[in-house]
Amino acid sequence: MAATNFIDTVTKGIVGAIKGTGEIVNAVTDTVGDVLTNALKGTGKVGSAAADAVSDVARGVIQGTSQVGGDLGSAAKGMVVGALRGTKEVGSEALSTISTSVSSLVRESASVGGDVAATAKGAVEGAIQAAKDIGVNAGDAVASTVAGAMRAAGEAGTSAAAAASGIASGVIRGTSEVGGELGGAARHAVLGVFRGTKDIGAGAFSTVGETAGSLIKETSAVGGNLGEAAKNAVEGAIEGAKELGLDVAAAASAAASGAVKAAGNVSKAATEEVTKAATGVISGVKVVLKAPFKD
Predict the structure, then answer these.
(1) Are 31 and 138 in a shared domain?
(2) SS in 3 state form for the chain?
């Protein structure tokens, strides 16, 4: 089936399912799972072919949900769960499926004027839920979600810093709503930003600072442990910088500085807590704040 016809079929299926049940998450999950199972059954489609099918289905999901005025975040959650069920992928293949799904979801959401942060939030909820079902590490699922969202946001013309801020906010909200561990989510959100962004020059550290700041702001909003979130954000920056061969100390400093700056907008006590947690020696790296914060 041609891609256009396939997308149209999915779109109509999503519209019918949502109208029929009035519920989005389960309607999308079931529709996506069935469509992908049937599309890939007996064809031996793997690798890029399966990725193309997942990408097309994601486009159909957003188009169909948008047509009926449904919540795109809920649709994103259902898409990620349904994609993993339909492709029956596990391990590294599952993480690739998550990243492909989220990239397509964010890209298509942006094209219809949707909220990227809300889409990321729903995708994180779906990734964490699916990770539990198939035995994939939840943190790795979060990192794959963020990486996919960052790539798509960049392709849509959103600046890396703005995209990272919105996506990080979605990560914390999504993790909180499914009862996930916020510190681990913060660490993997920063790591995912490194993996997903192509902005790995001087501006990379501004992006990390914005990410850490958004993580602190949203963690405060949901009543989470700010010190834990800040330390984990720095650890994620260290790990990400090592992967990409960037200045590890500078990356850690950017994350810590962004976290402290955001804590300053919360309270004096929050600033003290975050400063204590995010500075000193972390993962073998001496972390020093930059003031004023800049690349």
Answers:
(1) yes
(2) CCHHHHHHHHHHHHHHHHHHHCCCHHHHHHHHHHHHHHHHCCCCCCCHHHHHHHHHHHHHHHHHHHHCCCCHHHHHHHHHHHHHHHHCCCHHHHHHHHHHHHHHHHHHHHHCCCCHHHHHHHHHHHHHHHHHHHCCCHHHHHHHHHHHHHHHHHHCCCCHHHHHHHHHHHHHHHHHHCCCCHHHHHHHHHHHHHHHCCCCCCCHHHHHHHHHHHHHHHHHHCCCCHHHHHHHHHHHHHHHHHHHCCCHHHHHHHHHHHHHHHHCCCCHHHHHHHHHHHCEEECCEEECCCCCCCC
User: Residue 63 above 80 pLDDT?
Assistant: yes
Query: Which tops the pLDDT comparison, 127 or 250?
Result: 250
**Whether residues 45 and 142 fall in one domain:** yes
**What is the share, in percent, of the chain residues with pLDDT greater than 90?**
39
* Whole-number Å distance between alpha carbons of 249 and 216: 20
Q: In this structure, is the dihedral angle defined by the CA atoms of residues 213, 219, 223 and 227, taken in order, positive or negative?
A: negative
Total number of domains constituting the chain? 2
Statement to judge: residues 15 and 106 lie in one domain: yes
